[in-house]
Amino acid sequence: MSNIVLTAAVRQNLLSLQSTAELLSTTQGRLASGKKVNTALDNPTNFFTAAGLDARASDIGNLLDSIGNGVQVLQAANTGITSLQKLVDSAKSVASQALQTTVGYSTRGNIASGAITRNGVNIDGTDLRGLGTMSNRIYTGGVVNKGAAVGTIAGTDLLTAIGTGGTALSNGDVLTVNGKNITFDTSTVTPQTSSTDAFGNVTFYLGTSGTAPTVANLLSAIDTAAGNTGTGSVASTVANSGAAGSALQLNTGVNSDLTLSGTAVAKLGLTANTYNRTGDTLSFAALGGGLPTTVTFGDGTGGTVKTLNDLNTQLAGDNLSASIDSTGHLTISTSNDFASYTFPAVSGTAQNATDANGAFQITKGAVLTSTPIKDPTSQAIRQNLVIQYNNILSQINTTAQDASFNGVNLLNGDTLKLVFNETGKSTLTITGVTFNAGGLGLSTLLQGTDFIDNAATNRVLTTLNNASSTLRSQASALGSNLSIVQVRQDFNKNLINVLQTGSANLTLADTNEEAANSQALSTRQSIAVSALSLANQSQQSVLQLLR
Protein backbone atom coordinates (compact mmCIF):
# COMPACT_ATOMS: atom_id res chain seq x y z
CA MET A 1 0.00 0.00 0.00
CA SER A 2 3.05 2.24 0.22
CA ASN A 3 2.88 2.77 -3.59
CA ILE A 4 -0.41 4.63 -3.14
CA VAL A 5 0.10 8.32 -2.80
CA LEU A 6 -2.50 10.33 -0.88
CA THR A 7 -2.76 14.01 -0.84
CA ALA A 8 -2.22 15.89 2.35
CA ALA A 9 -5.91 16.77 2.60
CA VAL A 10 -7.01 13.17 2.09
CA ARG A 11 -4.41 11.93 4.55
CA GLN A 12 -5.58 14.50 7.15
CA ASN A 13 -9.20 13.53 6.70
CA LEU A 14 -8.30 9.85 6.91
CA LEU A 15 -6.49 10.34 10.22
CA SER A 16 -9.40 12.26 11.61
CA LEU A 17 -11.78 9.53 10.50
CA GLN A 18 -9.63 6.83 12.09
CA SER A 19 -9.48 8.74 15.37
CA THR A 20 -13.22 9.19 15.39
CA ALA A 21 -13.74 5.50 14.67
CA GLU A 22 -11.43 4.58 17.54
CA LEU A 23 -13.28 6.89 19.97
CA LEU A 24 -16.61 5.58 18.72
CA SER A 25 -15.45 2.01 19.29
CA THR A 26 -14.40 2.87 22.87
CA THR A 27 -17.71 4.59 23.59
CA GLN A 28 -19.71 1.73 22.14
CA GLY A 29 -17.68 -0.70 24.29
CA ARG A 30 -18.49 1.31 27.41
CA LEU A 31 -22.16 1.39 26.48
CA ALA A 32 -22.14 -2.34 25.85
CA SER A 33 -20.35 -3.27 29.15
CA GLY A 34 -21.65 -0.43 31.26
CA LYS A 35 -18.13 0.15 32.54
CA LYS A 36 -15.64 2.83 31.78
CA VAL A 37 -12.78 0.65 33.11
CA ASN A 38 -12.89 -2.85 31.62
CA THR A 39 -9.21 -3.76 31.76
CA ALA A 40 -6.14 -2.65 33.60
CA LEU A 41 -5.16 -0.74 30.43
CA ASP A 42 -8.19 1.53 30.84
CA ASN A 43 -7.18 2.74 34.34
CA PRO A 44 -4.79 0.55 36.32
CA THR A 45 -5.44 2.25 39.68
CA ASN A 46 -9.22 2.11 39.46
CA PHE A 47 -9.20 -1.37 37.95
CA PHE A 48 -7.13 -3.01 40.70
CA THR A 49 -8.79 -1.02 43.51
CA ALA A 50 -12.23 -2.06 42.28
CA ALA A 51 -11.05 -5.66 41.92
CA GLY A 52 -9.95 -5.65 45.58
CA LEU A 53 -13.26 -4.21 46.72
CA ASP A 54 -15.17 -6.79 44.68
CA ALA A 55 -13.04 -9.62 46.05
CA ARG A 56 -13.68 -8.54 49.66
CA ALA A 57 -17.39 -8.18 48.97
CA SER A 58 -17.38 -11.67 47.49
CA ASP A 59 -15.58 -13.14 50.51
CA ILE A 60 -18.01 -11.52 52.94
CA GLY A 61 -20.90 -12.66 50.77
CA ASN A 62 -19.66 -16.23 51.08
CA LEU A 63 -19.67 -15.84 54.89
CA LEU A 64 -23.32 -14.75 54.86
CA ASP A 65 -24.36 -18.30 54.07
CA SER A 66 -22.67 -19.69 57.19
CA ILE A 67 -24.01 -16.80 59.25
CA GLY A 68 -27.51 -17.54 57.97
CA ASN A 69 -27.06 -21.17 58.97
CA GLY A 70 -25.91 -20.01 62.40
CA VAL A 71 -29.09 -18.00 62.78
CA GLN A 72 -31.11 -21.10 62.02
CA VAL A 73 -29.10 -23.15 64.52
CA LEU A 74 -29.95 -20.59 67.19
CA GLN A 75 -33.58 -20.53 66.10
CA ALA A 76 -33.72 -24.33 66.35
CA ALA A 77 -32.25 -24.21 69.86
CA ASN A 78 -34.70 -21.49 70.89
CA THR A 79 -37.59 -23.55 69.52
CA GLY A 80 -36.31 -26.52 71.50
CA ILE A 81 -36.12 -24.50 74.72
CA THR A 82 -39.67 -23.26 74.19
CA SER A 83 -40.87 -26.85 73.82
CA LEU A 84 -38.82 -27.98 76.83
CA GLN A 85 -40.37 -25.23 78.94
CA LYS A 86 -43.83 -26.46 77.97
CA LEU A 87 -42.88 -30.01 78.89
CA VAL A 88 -41.51 -28.86 82.26
CA ASP A 89 -44.77 -26.99 82.85
CA SER A 90 -46.63 -30.21 82.06
CA ALA A 91 -44.49 -32.04 84.61
CA LYS A 92 -45.33 -29.31 87.15
CA SER A 93 -48.99 -29.88 86.43
CA VAL A 94 -48.59 -33.58 87.18
CA ALA A 95 -46.79 -32.79 90.45
CA SER A 96 -49.52 -30.32 91.38
CA GLN A 97 -52.10 -33.04 90.84
CA ALA A 98 -50.17 -35.18 93.31
CA LEU A 99 -50.36 -32.33 95.86
CA GLN A 100 -54.11 -32.06 95.33
CA THR A 101 -54.63 -35.80 95.66
CA THR A 102 -55.84 -37.20 98.96
CA VAL A 103 -53.00 -37.81 101.39
CA GLY A 104 -51.46 -41.16 100.56
CA TYR A 105 -51.88 -42.47 104.10
CA SER A 106 -55.12 -43.28 105.87
CA THR A 107 -53.32 -42.91 109.20
CA ARG A 108 -50.27 -40.79 109.76
CA GLY A 109 -47.71 -41.47 112.45
CA ASN A 110 -49.06 -39.99 115.66
CA ILE A 111 -49.39 -40.11 119.41
CA ALA A 112 -52.85 -39.65 120.96
CA SER A 113 -53.19 -38.77 124.63
CA GLY A 114 -55.59 -40.24 127.11
CA ALA A 115 -58.61 -38.07 127.87
CA ILE A 116 -57.50 -34.77 129.40
CA THR A 117 -59.91 -33.05 131.78
CA ARG A 118 -59.90 -29.92 133.85
CA ASN A 119 -62.23 -29.73 136.84
CA GLY A 120 -63.92 -32.84 135.52
CA VAL A 121 -64.60 -31.32 132.08
CA ASN A 122 -62.86 -32.37 128.88
CA ILE A 123 -60.41 -29.72 127.72
CA ASP A 124 -60.79 -27.96 124.37
CA GLY A 125 -58.51 -26.02 122.04
CA THR A 126 -58.76 -22.79 124.03
CA ASP A 127 -56.88 -24.12 127.04
CA LEU A 128 -54.88 -27.33 126.95
CA ARG A 129 -53.88 -27.12 130.60
CA GLY A 130 -55.48 -30.07 132.26
CA LEU A 131 -54.81 -33.27 134.11
CA GLY A 132 -51.32 -34.45 133.42
CA THR A 133 -50.35 -31.51 131.25
CA MET A 134 -49.79 -29.16 134.18
CA SER A 135 -47.94 -29.47 137.48
CA ASN A 136 -48.81 -27.84 140.79
CA ARG A 137 -47.18 -24.53 141.63
CA ILE A 138 -46.50 -23.57 145.24
CA TYR A 139 -46.97 -19.96 146.29
CA THR A 140 -45.80 -19.01 149.75
CA GLY A 141 -46.93 -15.64 151.07
CA GLY A 142 -45.34 -13.37 153.60
CA VAL A 143 -45.21 -13.91 157.38
CA VAL A 144 -48.63 -13.98 159.03
CA ASN A 145 -48.62 -12.80 162.65
CA LYS A 146 -50.59 -14.37 165.46
CA GLY A 147 -51.83 -11.59 167.64
CA ALA A 148 -48.98 -9.29 168.56
CA ALA A 149 -46.41 -12.05 168.05
CA VAL A 150 -44.29 -12.24 164.93
CA GLY A 151 -45.44 -15.25 162.95
CA THR A 152 -46.27 -18.36 164.99
CA ILE A 153 -49.62 -18.87 163.20
CA ALA A 154 -50.80 -22.47 162.69
CA GLY A 155 -53.64 -24.14 160.85
CA THR A 156 -55.54 -24.77 164.03
CA ASP A 157 -55.54 -21.12 165.01
CA LEU A 158 -58.72 -19.13 164.72
CA LEU A 159 -59.03 -16.50 162.03
CA THR A 160 -59.61 -13.95 164.76
CA ALA A 161 -56.07 -14.60 165.98
CA ILE A 162 -54.54 -13.25 162.79
CA GLY A 163 -52.74 -9.98 163.42
CA THR A 164 -53.73 -7.03 165.61
CA GLY A 165 -54.82 -3.51 164.78
CA GLY A 166 -54.45 -2.76 161.04
CA THR A 167 -53.41 -6.31 160.16
CA ALA A 168 -56.38 -8.01 161.77
CA LEU A 169 -59.29 -9.08 159.61
CA SER A 170 -62.10 -6.52 159.66
CA ASN A 171 -65.77 -6.90 159.05
CA GLY A 172 -66.43 -7.06 155.31
CA ASP A 173 -62.88 -7.85 154.25
CA VAL A 174 -62.84 -9.96 151.09
CA LEU A 175 -60.34 -12.38 149.60
CA THR A 176 -61.17 -13.07 145.94
CA VAL A 177 -59.85 -16.37 144.60
CA ASN A 178 -60.29 -17.08 140.89
CA GLY A 179 -63.33 -14.83 140.80
CA LYS A 180 -65.00 -16.29 143.91
CA ASN A 181 -65.27 -14.18 147.06
CA ILE A 182 -64.32 -15.31 150.55
CA THR A 183 -65.88 -12.72 152.88
CA PHE A 184 -64.97 -12.23 156.55
CA ASP A 185 -67.99 -11.25 158.75
CA THR A 186 -67.19 -10.18 162.33
CA SER A 187 -70.59 -8.69 163.25
CA THR A 188 -73.15 -11.39 162.50
CA VAL A 189 -73.93 -13.67 165.44
CA THR A 190 -74.84 -17.12 164.17
CA PRO A 191 -74.06 -20.68 165.15
CA GLN A 192 -72.63 -21.27 161.66
CA THR A 193 -68.92 -21.38 161.02
CA SER A 194 -69.38 -20.41 157.36
CA SER A 195 -71.87 -20.40 154.52
CA THR A 196 -71.53 -20.96 150.75
CA ASP A 197 -73.92 -19.59 148.15
CA ALA A 198 -74.94 -21.13 144.84
CA PHE A 199 -72.04 -19.43 143.05
CA GLY A 200 -69.38 -20.81 145.36
CA ASN A 201 -68.86 -17.60 147.33
CA VAL A 202 -67.98 -18.29 150.99
CA THR A 203 -68.64 -16.20 154.12
CA PHE A 204 -66.76 -16.90 157.33
CA TYR A 205 -68.48 -15.79 160.55
CA LEU A 206 -65.71 -14.71 162.89
CA GLY A 207 -68.26 -13.72 165.60
CA THR A 208 -70.09 -17.03 165.50
CA SER A 209 -71.69 -18.45 168.58
CA GLY A 210 -70.76 -21.90 167.34
CA THR A 211 -67.44 -23.34 166.17
CA ALA A 212 -65.18 -20.49 165.13
CA PRO A 213 -63.48 -20.71 161.68
CA THR A 214 -59.80 -21.58 161.66
CA VAL A 215 -56.88 -20.93 159.34
CA ALA A 216 -57.30 -24.50 158.07
CA ASN A 217 -60.93 -23.73 157.17
CA LEU A 218 -59.73 -20.72 155.18
CA LEU A 219 -57.08 -22.76 153.32
CA SER A 220 -59.70 -25.37 152.43
CA ALA A 221 -62.02 -22.66 151.08
CA ILE A 222 -59.16 -21.19 149.02
CA ASP A 223 -58.41 -24.63 147.48
CA THR A 224 -62.08 -25.15 146.63
CA ALA A 225 -62.39 -21.74 144.99
CA ALA A 226 -59.13 -22.30 143.06
CA GLY A 227 -60.17 -25.73 141.78
CA ASN A 228 -57.33 -27.34 143.67
CA THR A 229 -59.35 -30.44 144.53
CA GLY A 230 -59.57 -34.01 143.41
CA THR A 231 -56.93 -35.95 141.45
CA GLY A 232 -53.72 -34.01 141.01
CA SER A 233 -54.53 -31.54 143.80
CA VAL A 234 -52.11 -30.50 146.52
CA ALA A 235 -53.72 -29.10 149.69
CA SER A 236 -52.66 -25.63 150.76
CA THR A 237 -51.11 -25.38 154.23
CA VAL A 238 -49.17 -23.19 156.64
CA ALA A 239 -45.44 -23.08 156.04
CA ASN A 240 -43.32 -23.06 159.20
CA SER A 241 -46.49 -23.65 161.20
CA GLY A 242 -46.25 -22.21 164.71
CA ALA A 243 -42.80 -20.76 164.06
CA ALA A 244 -41.72 -17.16 163.71
CA GLY A 245 -41.62 -17.44 159.93
CA SER A 246 -45.09 -18.92 159.54
CA ALA A 247 -46.87 -18.07 156.26
CA LEU A 248 -49.74 -19.31 154.12
CA GLN A 249 -48.52 -21.76 151.50
CA LEU A 250 -51.00 -21.99 148.64
CA ASN A 251 -51.03 -24.52 145.80
CA THR A 252 -52.49 -24.05 142.33
CA GLY A 253 -53.11 -27.74 141.81
CA VAL A 254 -53.12 -28.97 138.20
CA ASN A 255 -56.54 -27.76 137.09
CA SER A 256 -56.34 -23.95 137.31
CA ASP A 257 -54.02 -21.03 137.83
CA LEU A 258 -54.42 -19.08 141.05
CA THR A 259 -55.59 -15.45 140.96
CA LEU A 260 -55.77 -13.47 144.22
CA SER A 261 -57.21 -10.03 144.99
CA GLY A 262 -59.33 -8.21 147.58
CA THR A 263 -58.96 -6.21 150.82
CA ALA A 264 -57.86 -9.20 152.85
CA VAL A 265 -54.91 -10.13 150.61
CA ALA A 266 -52.24 -8.12 152.45
CA LYS A 267 -53.62 -8.97 155.90
CA LEU A 268 -53.06 -12.64 155.06
CA GLY A 269 -49.48 -11.98 153.95
CA LEU A 270 -50.41 -12.52 150.31
CA THR A 271 -49.87 -10.47 147.13
CA ALA A 272 -52.58 -9.77 144.58
CA ASN A 273 -51.47 -11.53 141.41
CA THR A 274 -52.01 -14.55 139.14
CA TYR A 275 -49.85 -17.57 139.96
CA ASN A 276 -49.58 -19.91 136.99
CA ARG A 277 -49.18 -23.62 137.23
CA THR A 278 -45.95 -25.20 136.07
CA GLY A 279 -46.44 -26.97 132.74
CA ASP A 280 -45.53 -30.49 131.79
CA THR A 281 -43.23 -30.88 128.83
CA LEU A 282 -43.43 -32.92 125.66
CA SER A 283 -40.36 -33.32 123.43
CA PHE A 284 -40.06 -34.60 119.85
CA ALA A 285 -36.98 -35.59 117.86
CA ALA A 286 -36.36 -33.89 114.50
CA LEU A 287 -38.65 -34.99 111.66
CA GLY A 288 -38.02 -34.55 107.94
CA GLY A 289 -35.38 -31.86 108.26
CA GLY A 290 -37.32 -30.06 110.99
CA LEU A 291 -36.00 -28.91 114.34
CA PRO A 292 -36.21 -30.93 117.56
CA THR A 293 -39.02 -29.40 119.59
CA THR A 294 -39.85 -29.27 123.28
CA VAL A 295 -43.32 -28.04 124.21
CA THR A 296 -43.94 -26.64 127.68
CA PHE A 297 -47.61 -26.31 128.61
CA GLY A 298 -48.43 -23.13 130.49
CA ASP A 299 -50.34 -19.87 130.34
CA GLY A 300 -49.13 -18.95 126.87
CA THR A 301 -46.46 -16.53 128.08
CA GLY A 302 -42.71 -16.95 128.13
CA GLY A 303 -42.79 -19.47 125.29
CA THR A 304 -45.28 -21.78 126.98
CA VAL A 305 -48.26 -23.32 125.21
CA LYS A 306 -51.83 -22.72 126.29
CA THR A 307 -54.07 -23.05 123.22
CA LEU A 308 -54.17 -25.47 120.32
CA ASN A 309 -52.97 -22.66 118.05
CA ASP A 310 -49.98 -22.11 120.33
CA LEU A 311 -49.18 -25.80 120.15
CA ASN A 312 -49.42 -25.97 116.35
CA THR A 313 -47.18 -22.93 116.01
CA GLN A 314 -44.43 -24.65 117.97
CA LEU A 315 -44.90 -28.03 116.29
CA ALA A 316 -44.80 -26.58 112.75
CA GLY A 317 -41.02 -26.20 112.96
CA ASP A 318 -40.73 -29.98 113.35
CA ASN A 319 -43.30 -30.77 110.64
CA LEU A 320 -45.89 -31.91 113.19
CA SER A 321 -49.48 -30.82 113.82
CA ALA A 322 -51.98 -31.24 116.65
CA SER A 323 -55.74 -31.66 116.96
CA ILE A 324 -58.16 -32.30 119.78
CA ASP A 325 -61.50 -34.11 119.74
CA SER A 326 -64.64 -33.57 121.78
CA THR A 327 -63.60 -36.21 124.31
CA GLY A 328 -60.44 -34.32 125.31
CA HIS A 329 -57.98 -36.56 123.45
CA LEU A 330 -55.07 -34.52 122.10
CA THR A 331 -53.46 -36.06 119.01
CA ILE A 332 -50.08 -34.98 117.66
CA SER A 333 -49.24 -36.35 114.21
CA THR A 334 -46.91 -35.82 111.29
CA SER A 335 -48.10 -33.06 108.97
CA ASN A 336 -49.69 -33.86 105.59
CA ASP A 337 -46.48 -32.93 103.82
CA PHE A 338 -44.56 -35.58 105.78
CA ALA A 339 -47.27 -38.23 106.01
CA SER A 340 -44.88 -41.00 104.91
CA TYR A 341 -42.47 -40.42 107.80
CA THR A 342 -42.27 -42.54 110.92
CA PHE A 343 -43.36 -40.63 113.99
CA PRO A 344 -40.33 -39.22 115.85
CA ALA A 345 -39.20 -40.28 119.32
CA VAL A 346 -41.26 -38.73 122.11
CA SER A 347 -40.18 -37.82 125.64
CA GLY A 348 -41.02 -35.29 128.37
CA THR A 349 -42.82 -35.20 131.72
CA ALA A 350 -46.23 -35.60 130.08
CA GLN A 351 -45.09 -38.84 128.45
CA ASN A 352 -42.74 -40.46 130.93
CA ALA A 353 -43.16 -41.34 134.59
CA THR A 354 -41.93 -37.96 135.84
CA ASP A 355 -45.54 -36.84 136.02
CA ALA A 356 -47.65 -39.73 137.31
CA ASN A 357 -50.69 -38.19 135.69
CA GLY A 358 -49.06 -37.43 132.34
CA ALA A 359 -51.77 -37.86 129.73
CA PHE A 360 -49.32 -39.07 127.06
CA GLN A 361 -48.30 -42.15 129.01
CA ILE A 362 -49.45 -45.49 127.67
CA THR A 363 -50.76 -46.31 131.15
CA LYS A 364 -53.04 -43.27 130.94
CA GLY A 365 -54.59 -44.41 127.69
CA ALA A 366 -52.16 -42.81 125.26
CA VAL A 367 -51.73 -44.60 121.92
CA LEU A 368 -48.58 -44.33 119.78
CA THR A 369 -48.75 -45.12 116.05
CA SER A 370 -45.18 -44.94 114.82
CA THR A 371 -45.54 -46.23 111.26
CA PRO A 372 -48.07 -44.57 108.96
CA ILE A 373 -50.68 -46.74 107.23
CA LYS A 374 -50.92 -46.39 103.46
CA ASP A 375 -54.15 -45.62 101.64
CA PRO A 376 -54.15 -48.06 98.66
CA THR A 377 -56.50 -45.96 96.53
CA SER A 378 -54.57 -42.75 96.98
CA GLN A 379 -51.23 -44.48 96.47
CA ALA A 380 -52.50 -46.03 93.21
CA ILE A 381 -53.39 -42.55 91.94
CA ARG A 382 -50.00 -41.23 92.94
CA GLN A 383 -48.20 -44.14 91.26
CA ASN A 384 -50.09 -43.41 88.05
CA LEU A 385 -48.91 -39.81 88.27
CA VAL A 386 -45.34 -41.09 88.60
CA ILE A 387 -45.78 -42.93 85.27
CA GLN A 388 -47.12 -39.77 83.62
CA TYR A 389 -44.21 -37.76 84.98
CA ASN A 390 -41.63 -40.26 83.68
CA ASN A 391 -43.25 -40.20 80.22
CA ILE A 392 -42.81 -36.43 80.16
CA LEU A 393 -39.12 -36.84 81.07
CA SER A 394 -38.72 -39.17 78.07
CA GLN A 395 -40.16 -36.46 75.82
CA ILE A 396 -37.77 -33.94 77.32
CA ASN A 397 -34.85 -36.19 76.33
CA THR A 398 -36.03 -36.70 72.73
CA THR A 399 -36.94 -33.03 72.28
CA ALA A 400 -33.47 -31.94 73.35
CA GLN A 401 -31.92 -34.41 70.89
CA ASP A 402 -34.09 -33.24 68.00
CA ALA A 403 -33.38 -29.51 68.36
CA SER A 404 -30.62 -29.52 65.73
CA PHE A 405 -30.02 -27.73 62.42
CA ASN A 406 -27.51 -28.81 59.83
CA GLY A 407 -26.00 -31.25 62.31
CA VAL A 408 -25.44 -28.70 65.09
CA ASN A 409 -27.49 -29.02 68.30
CA LEU A 410 -26.88 -26.40 70.97
CA LEU A 411 -29.13 -28.31 73.37
CA ASN A 412 -27.07 -31.48 73.09
CA GLY A 413 -23.62 -30.14 73.96
CA ASP A 414 -22.49 -28.97 70.47
CA THR A 415 -20.57 -25.73 69.90
CA LEU A 416 -21.34 -23.19 67.18
CA LYS A 417 -18.54 -20.99 65.82
CA LEU A 418 -19.39 -18.16 63.45
CA VAL A 419 -16.87 -16.12 61.39
CA PHE A 420 -17.96 -12.59 60.52
CA ASN A 421 -15.13 -11.21 58.36
CA GLU A 422 -12.85 -12.39 55.58
CA THR A 423 -9.75 -12.47 57.78
CA GLY A 424 -11.33 -14.83 60.32
CA LYS A 425 -10.44 -12.49 63.20
CA SER A 426 -14.03 -11.50 63.99
CA THR A 427 -15.77 -14.57 65.42
CA LEU A 428 -18.42 -15.63 67.90
CA THR A 429 -18.29 -18.98 69.69
CA ILE A 430 -21.53 -20.21 71.27
CA THR A 431 -21.07 -23.12 73.64
CA GLY A 432 -24.00 -25.49 73.77
CA VAL A 433 -25.62 -27.06 76.80
CA THR A 434 -26.97 -30.51 77.56
CA PHE A 435 -30.65 -30.04 78.25
CA ASN A 436 -31.90 -33.57 78.52
CA ALA A 437 -33.66 -34.51 81.76
CA GLY A 438 -30.37 -35.14 83.55
CA GLY A 439 -28.91 -31.86 82.35
CA LEU A 440 -31.92 -30.03 83.76
CA GLY A 441 -31.50 -31.75 87.12
CA LEU A 442 -34.54 -33.98 86.64
CA SER A 443 -34.48 -37.66 87.45
CA THR A 444 -36.84 -40.53 86.84
CA LEU A 445 -39.26 -41.07 89.72
CA LEU A 446 -39.79 -44.37 91.49
CA GLN A 447 -43.20 -45.75 92.35
CA GLY A 448 -43.64 -46.16 96.07
CA THR A 449 -40.86 -43.66 96.78
CA ASP A 450 -41.80 -40.44 94.99
CA PHE A 451 -45.11 -38.60 95.12
CA ILE A 452 -46.01 -40.69 98.20
CA ASP A 453 -46.70 -37.54 100.24
CA ASN A 454 -46.55 -33.78 99.86
CA ALA A 455 -42.98 -33.51 101.08
CA ALA A 456 -41.76 -35.90 98.36
CA THR A 457 -43.88 -34.07 95.81
CA ASN A 458 -42.58 -30.67 96.88
CA ARG A 459 -39.02 -31.90 96.38
CA VAL A 460 -39.90 -32.77 92.79
CA LEU A 461 -41.55 -29.36 92.31
CA THR A 462 -38.39 -27.69 93.57
CA THR A 463 -36.30 -29.45 90.92
CA LEU A 464 -38.86 -28.51 88.24
CA ASN A 465 -38.78 -24.87 89.30
CA ASN A 466 -34.99 -24.95 89.11
CA ALA A 467 -35.24 -26.48 85.63
CA SER A 468 -37.60 -23.70 84.55
CA SER A 469 -35.16 -21.08 85.80
CA THR A 470 -32.31 -22.79 83.93
CA LEU A 471 -34.33 -22.85 80.70
CA ARG A 472 -35.27 -19.18 81.04
CA SER A 473 -31.66 -18.24 81.65
CA GLN A 474 -30.48 -20.18 78.59
CA ALA A 475 -33.28 -18.74 76.47
CA SER A 476 -32.07 -15.28 77.45
CA ALA A 477 -28.50 -16.18 76.52
CA LEU A 478 -29.60 -17.60 73.16
CA GLY A 479 -31.69 -14.52 72.49
CA SER A 480 -28.70 -12.30 73.19
CA ASN A 481 -26.47 -14.35 70.87
CA LEU A 482 -29.15 -14.42 68.18
CA SER A 483 -29.41 -10.65 68.35
CA ILE A 484 -25.64 -10.35 67.95
CA VAL A 485 -25.60 -12.69 64.95
CA GLN A 486 -28.49 -10.90 63.26
CA VAL A 487 -26.81 -7.53 63.79
CA ARG A 488 -23.61 -8.85 62.23
CA GLN A 489 -25.60 -10.41 59.41
CA ASP A 490 -27.21 -7.06 58.61
CA PHE A 491 -23.87 -5.32 58.99
CA ASN A 492 -22.21 -7.66 56.48
CA LYS A 493 -25.01 -7.15 53.99
CA ASN A 494 -24.65 -3.39 54.26
CA LEU A 495 -20.87 -3.62 54.08
CA ILE A 496 -21.11 -5.68 50.88
CA ASN A 497 -23.31 -2.97 49.41
CA VAL A 498 -20.77 -0.32 50.41
CA LEU A 499 -17.89 -2.27 48.85
CA GLN A 500 -19.79 -2.96 45.63
CA THR A 501 -20.89 0.67 45.41
CA GLY A 502 -17.29 1.83 45.86
CA SER A 503 -16.16 -0.58 43.15
CA ALA A 504 -18.88 0.59 40.79
CA ASN A 505 -17.97 4.23 41.37
CA LEU A 506 -14.46 3.41 40.18
CA THR A 507 -15.38 1.38 37.07
CA LEU A 508 -18.91 2.05 35.90
CA ALA A 509 -19.50 4.35 32.95
CA ASP A 510 -21.94 7.23 32.83
CA THR A 511 -24.35 5.90 30.21
CA ASN A 512 -25.84 9.31 29.56
CA GLU A 513 -22.43 10.76 28.91
CA GLU A 514 -21.35 7.84 26.74
CA ALA A 515 -24.61 7.98 24.74
CA ALA A 516 -24.01 11.67 24.09
CA ASN A 517 -20.41 10.90 23.11
CA SER A 518 -21.62 8.17 20.76
CA GLN A 519 -24.02 10.59 19.07
CA ALA A 520 -21.38 13.25 18.75
CA LEU A 521 -18.82 10.80 17.35
CA SER A 522 -21.34 9.45 14.82
CA THR A 523 -21.94 13.00 13.62
CA ARG A 524 -18.20 13.65 13.49
CA GLN A 525 -17.70 10.45 11.52
CA SER A 526 -20.32 11.47 8.99
CA ILE A 527 -18.67 14.87 8.58
CA ALA A 528 -15.23 13.25 8.21
CA VAL A 529 -16.55 10.96 5.47
CA SER A 530 -17.98 13.99 3.62
CA ALA A 531 -14.69 15.86 4.02
CA LEU A 532 -12.77 12.90 2.66
CA SER A 533 -15.12 12.77 -0.31
CA LEU A 534 -14.50 16.47 -1.07
CA ALA A 535 -10.75 15.96 -0.78
CA ASN A 536 -10.90 13.23 -3.45
CA GLN A 537 -12.87 15.38 -5.96
CA SER A 538 -9.71 17.01 -7.35
CA GLN A 539 -8.27 13.62 -8.27
CA GLN A 540 -11.57 12.59 -9.83
CA SER A 541 -11.38 15.71 -12.08
CA VAL A 542 -7.96 14.63 -13.40
CA LEU A 543 -9.45 11.22 -14.12
CA GLN A 544 -12.13 12.85 -16.25
CA LEU A 545 -9.47 14.63 -18.36
CA LEU A 546 -7.71 11.36 -19.02
CA ARG A 547 -10.91 9.89 -20.30
Please provide a written account of the structure.
This protein is α+β, with helices and mostly antiparallel strands and 547 residues long. 40% of the residues lie in helices and 18% in strands. It contains eight helices and 26 strands. The protein has helices at 8-33, 44-100, 215-226, 308-315, 376-402, 454-507, 511-535, 537-546; strands at residues 105-107, 110-115, 117-118, 121-122, 134-135, 138-143, 145-146, 149-152, 173-177, 180-185, 194-196, 202-205, 237-239, 247-251, 258-261, 273-275, 278-279, 281-284, 293-296, 320-324, 329-334, 346-347, 367-369, 373-374, 415-419, 427-431. The strands form nine sheets. Strands 11-12-10-9-15-16 form a six-stranded mixed beta sheet, covered by helices on one side. The chain has a four-stranded antiparallel beta sheet with strand order 20-21-2-23. A three-stranded antiparallel beta sheet has the order 6-14-13. Helix 1 packs antiparallel against helix 7 (511-535) and helix 2 (44-100) runs antiparallel to helix 6. The radius of gyration is 55 Å and the shape is rod-shaped.
Provide the fold topology:
Layout: H1 8-33, H2 44-100, E1 105-107, E2 110-115, E3 117-118, E4 121-122, E5 134-135, E6 138-143, E7 145-146, E8 149-152, E9 173-177, E10 180-185, E11 194-196, E12 202-205, H3 215-226, E13 237-239, E14 247-251, E15 258-261, E16 273-275, E17 278-279, E18 281-284, E19 293-296, H4 308-315, E20 320-324, E21 329-334, E22 346-347, E23 367-369, E24 373-374, H5 376-402, E25 415-419, E26 427-431, H6 454-507, H7 511-535, H8 537-546
Parallel strand pairs: 10-12
Antiparallel strand pairs: 1-24, 2-21, 2-23, 3-4, 5-17, 6-14, 7-8, 9-10, 9-15, 11-12, 13-14, 15-16, 18-19, 18-22, 20-21, 25-26
